[in-house]
């Protein structure tokens, strides 16, 4: 019984960036000189080991988007990439991400949150650029650097802050913490502490979407899953295994690599034989895209195509976003290894500043409107902290509640009753 | 991971047809004409979770039966006439698993299967034979060889509404999926604050087979038992295989179902009607007075074989197949301990850190006052299972050791 599914053959599909663009697939695209993309402390490594870089062109399947978008912008009279509403939405989301993370740092040093906290400052363009294009039923899977992904997806700042404070009103009842943000309502599937372990989960969510359409016959099910992960993860087996499966079964998923060049203290170039991650997509039969992850508009354009592809059932895409984290790996990281010149280079490309400049120069928003948004977000974040402060810590009774969906799983006690029927169980003091 | 599984089938077939084996003991010879003790003439009692109890004690039959039958069933010698008049239908354990799986897939379209060679090949032990033709390639998914990732994919699918049954071609391969099983399968319900359920079933054959070598002879129940948030069950008869499979699929918790490589060809008559076996309950195999023997999976058969000898020697062992490896059914076990005051645990896990070790601790903790003697635990040696037949035989517990242990306990 042959199904389209069982076909072993597939072809790499050219990635049509923008069907209306006059430039995209007509002229072959050249990759920008990598040294202009990766600067600072990595420059030396680049120049001395240029043999590592394969600068040959691949027609059609792999593009450097930044070039295309640049060309497009300069040719036409300003056809704006976004409307005013969209612009303000993007701005607000990025400001929320930034303000929230800054507040997290403050709260951490004040002893309100503990453990490992990984902040997203500098990478907001990726989260906003992608997630703001999603519907509520689409899913997002992230790593431990997940606060802003959750916020972009719609999880209230209060819920995230409470979770970070370990309060029972947190999105995971205080049981997950910084690295495990989940929301059923907003389809945030985590929050994972080990890198790479979220990618198969994302692949599974995409599988469910395909299953619903093809087996359960929910014809309009076009839910897309986004998997966010970093450059370090791209050397991990689960990454490659899932690229294979997603391409094999044409799953509606987008693999978004947030390449911030550093895995704690390990430079991407020191860890990876071929640092150009987007090239790994075509090896598995999907388009691989590189985009400037400090520019939210460029990211958004690429995201539109990738998500559109997935929704239409054309399969997965690998998108490498070149981005940078302004802070250390976590709040415990002294961040001594990175070259100050590199940091300065990327600080000058702050995505929020860039968007602000774009909005103002193109008369999409005024300074006053943007300042109003800044103020509004400040209030949201303050409110979130207040809410979290005032929320109760989990009671002991919560200890055993969510170990099993069906608490009969704790078994039968010596007295013949299920342990979960023991009154001590609901108090959290039962011996299980 | 690349093995020749047809080799196993051949080994099993060889066992059932020829009495010559590379390793010694006549005890392990299988007499081709003798069927495995099924309910007809069986000397054990099966208590079902619905409370009904079957007594099939037939003292004459018991004495008449020879010693062993190894764990692998041979051709049934029941005549067609007699089998057609009985209720229910006869099948082999792997067919019972398939029947349970198929019934649940018919019942709920969200149930799907994932694993290596489960689709077109029908499963390396034929548990999923025919299902891909019936349900399609997406519902019975042939995965690439990527255990960690496809188990994680199953978990993601379970979180988003499906009910996957993930097969490990051999339980040992699931060591590669430990990341997903421990971190995600067991923990995500908790770390998400109860928002996501993971109604996944992870199943596959494990245990020591016939000279399969160290890596294909592993007992993963001892590695997985500490993972919070999962349940573990082990099937041992066609009846409980089907019942546990169905119960595991219907459960909202992640369940790991341990099958045994050598038990797939057991034959039994099972009911036609729909039934499940409770995941948390143990099974009373043979009630008795003198000693409680706790066991599971293949060792049940070594115990029952030893039980015959013990009965001939005048002992009356109570045999319980604990079935639920996590959590333990301390009610059934406790009642037994309170009656007999002596406990022997017979397991296939290794001595260190196995299910027996946990069970010893649990029984001591809860029923210390009722014990007249220290708990004895017979486990496999802490040795990678050797290939050589003689050595392999000495790593696992044999019926003679069980007999000796009971005699010692009951002194």
From TrEMBL, chain A:
GO biological process per UniProt: pyruvate decarboxylation to acetyl-CoA
Enzymatic reactions: N(6)-[(R)-lipoyl]-L-lysyl-[protein] + pyruvate + H(+) = N(6)-[(R)-S(8)-acetyldihydrolipoyl]-L-lysyl-[protein] + CO2
Pfam families for the chain: E1_dh (PF00676)
Cofactor: thiamine diphosphate
UniProtKB keywords: Oxidoreductase, Pyruvate, Thiamine pyrophosphate
Gene Ontology molecular function terms on file: pyruvate dehydrogenase (acetyl-transferring) activity
Documented EC number(s): 1.2.4.1
Residue ranges occupied by any Dehydrogenase E1 component domain in the UniProt entry: 93-394
NCBIfam families xref list: PDH_E1_alph_y (TIGR03182)
Function field: The pyruvate dehydrogenase complex catalyzes the overall conversion of pyruvate to acetyl-CoA and CO(2). It contains multiple copies of three enzymatic components: pyruvate dehydrogenase (E1), dihydrolipoamide acetyltransferase (E2) and lipoamide dehydrogenase (E3).
Subunit composition and interactions: Tetramer of 2 alpha and 2 beta subunits.
Protein name, per record: Pyruvate dehydrogenase E1 component subunit alpha
UniProt source species: Hibiscus trionum
Origin organism lineage: Eukaryota, Viridiplantae, Streptophyta, Embryophyta, Tracheophyta
From TrEMBL, chain B:
Classification via SMART domains: Transket_pyr
Annotated SUPFAM superfamilies: Thiamin diphosphate-binding fold (THDP-binding), TK C-terminal domain-like
Location(s), subcellular: Plastid, Chloroplast
Keyword Plastid: yes
Alphabetical list of InterPro entries matching this protein: THDP-binding (IPR029061), Transketo_C/PFOR_II (IPR009014), Transketolase-like_Pyr-bd (IPR005475), Transketolase_C (IPR033248)
Entry keywords, A to Z: Chloroplast, Metal-binding, Oxidoreductase, Plastid, Potassium, Pyruvate, Thiamine pyrophosphate, Transit peptide
Catalytic activity: N(6)-[(R)-lipoyl]-L-lysyl-[protein] + pyruvate + H(+) = N(6)-[(R)-S(8)-acetyldihydrolipoyl]-L-lysyl-[protein] + CO2
Top-level EC class: oxidoreductase
Cofactor dependency: thiamine diphosphate
Gene3D superfamilies per the UniProt record, alphabetical: 3.40.50.920, 3.40.50.970
GO molecular function: metal ion binding; pyruvate dehydrogenase (acetyl-transferring) activity
A GO CC annotation given for this chain: chloroplast
Keyword S-adenosyl-L-methionine in record: no
CDD domains: TPP_PYR_E1-PDHc-beta_like
Protein's name according to its UniProt entry: pyruvate dehydrogenase (acetyl-transferring)
UniProt source species: Hibiscus trionum
């Amino acid at each position: 019984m042959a199904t389209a599914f069982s076909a072993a053959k597939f072809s790499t599909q050219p990635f049509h960036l923008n069907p209306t663009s006059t430039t995209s697939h007509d002229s072959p695209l050249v990759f920008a000189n990598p040294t202009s993309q990766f600067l600072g402390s990595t420059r030396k490594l680049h120049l001395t080991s240029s043999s590592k870089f394969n600068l040959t062109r691949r027609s059609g399947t792999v593009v450097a988007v930044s070039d295309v978008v640049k060309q497009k912008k300069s040719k036409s009279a300003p056809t704006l990439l976004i409307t005013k509403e969209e612009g303000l939405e993007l701005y607000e989301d990025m400001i929320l991400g930034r303000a929230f993370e800054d507040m997290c740092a403050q709260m951490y040093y004040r002893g309100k949150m503990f453990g490992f906290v990984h902040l997203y400052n500098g990478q907001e363009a990726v989260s906003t650029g992608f997630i703001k294009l999603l519907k509520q039923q689409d899913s997002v899977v992230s790593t431990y650097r997940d606060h802003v992904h959750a916020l972009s997806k719609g999880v209230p700042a209060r819920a995230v802050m409470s979770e970070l404070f370990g309060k029972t009103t947190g999105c995971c009842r205080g049981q997950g913490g910084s690295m495990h943000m989940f929301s059923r309502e907003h389809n945030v599937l985590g929050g994972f502490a080990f890198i790479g372990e979220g990618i198969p989960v994302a692949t599974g969510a995409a599988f469910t979407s395909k299953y619903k359409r093809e087996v359960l016959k929910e014809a309009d099910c076009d839910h897309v899953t986004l998997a966010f992960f970093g450059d370090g993860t791209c050397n991990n087996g689960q990454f490659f295994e899932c690229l294979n499966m997603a391409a094999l079964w044409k799953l509606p998923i987008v693999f978004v690599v947030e390449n911030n060049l550093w895995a704690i203290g390990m430079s991407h170039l020191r860890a990876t034989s071929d640092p150009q991650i987007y090239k790994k997509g075509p090896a598995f039969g999907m388009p691989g895209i590189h985009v400037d992850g400090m520019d939210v508009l460029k990211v958004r354009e690429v995201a539109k195509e990738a998500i559109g592809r997935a929704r239409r059932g054309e399969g997965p895409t690998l998108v490498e976003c070149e981005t940078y984290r302004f802070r250390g790996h976590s709040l415990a990281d002294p961040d001594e290894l990175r070259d100050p010149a590199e940091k300065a280079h990327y600080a000058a490309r702050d995505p929020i500043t860039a968007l602000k400049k774009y909005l103002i120069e193109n008369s999409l928003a005024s300074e006053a409107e943007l300042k109003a948004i800044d103020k509004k977000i400040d209030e949201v974040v303050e409110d979130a902290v207040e809410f979290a402060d005032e929320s109760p810590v989990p009671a002991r009774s919560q200890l055993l509640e969510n170990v099993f969906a069906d608490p009969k799983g704790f078994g039968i006690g010596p007295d013949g009753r299920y342990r979960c029927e023991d009154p001590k169980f609901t108090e959290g003091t039962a011996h299980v | 991971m690349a093995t020749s599984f047809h080799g196993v089938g051949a080994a099993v077939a060889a066992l059932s047809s020829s009495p010559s084996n590379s390793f010694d003991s006549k005890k392990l010879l299988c007499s081709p004409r003798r069927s495995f003790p099924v309910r007809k003439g069986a000397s054990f009692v099966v208590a079902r979770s619905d409370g009904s109890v079957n007594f099939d004690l037939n003292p004459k039959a018991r004495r008449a039966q020879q010693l062993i039958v190894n764990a692998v069933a041979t051709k049934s010698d029941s005549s067609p006439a007699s089998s057609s008049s009985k209720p229910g239908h006869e099948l082999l354990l792997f067919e019972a698993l398939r029947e349970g799986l198929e019934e649940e897939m018919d019942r709920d379209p969200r149930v799907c299967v994932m694993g290596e060679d489960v689709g077109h090949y029908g499963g390396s032990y034929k548990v999923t034979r025919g299902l891909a033709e019936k349900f399609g390639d997406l519902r019975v998914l042939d995965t690439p060889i990527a255990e960690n990732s496809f188990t994680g994919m199953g978990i993601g699918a379970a979180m988003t509404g499906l009910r996957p049954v993930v097969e490990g071609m051999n339980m040992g391969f699931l060591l590669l999926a430990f990341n997903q099983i421990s971190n995600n399968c067991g923990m995500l319900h908790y770390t998400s604050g109860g928002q996501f359920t993971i109604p996944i079933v992870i199943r596959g054959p494990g245990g020591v087979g016939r000279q399969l070598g160290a890596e294909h002879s592993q007992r993963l129940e001892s590695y997985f038992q500490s993972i919070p948030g999962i349940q573990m069950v082990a099937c041992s008869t066609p009846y409980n295989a089907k019942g546990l499979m169905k119960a595991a699929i219907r459960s909202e918790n992640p369940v790991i179902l341990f099958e045994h490589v050598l038990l797939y060809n057991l034959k039994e008559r099972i009911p036609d009607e729909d039934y499940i076996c409770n995941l948390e309950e143990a099974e009373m195999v043979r009630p008795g007075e003198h000693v409680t023997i706790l066991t599971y999976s293949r060792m049940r058969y070594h115990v029952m074989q030893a039980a015959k000898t013990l009965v001939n020697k005048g002992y009356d062992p109570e045999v319980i197949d604990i079935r639920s490896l996590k959590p333990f059914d301390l009610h059934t076990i406790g009642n037994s301990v309170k009656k007999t005051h002596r406990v022997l645990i017979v397991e296939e896990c290794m001595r260190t850190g196995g299910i027996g070790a946990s069970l010893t601790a649990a029984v001591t903790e809860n029923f210390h006052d009722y014990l007249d003697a220290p708990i004895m635990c017979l486990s496999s040696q802490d040795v990678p299972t050797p290939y050589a037949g003689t050595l392999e035989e000495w790593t696992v517990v044999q019926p003679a050791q069980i007999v000796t242990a009971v005699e010692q306990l009951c002194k």
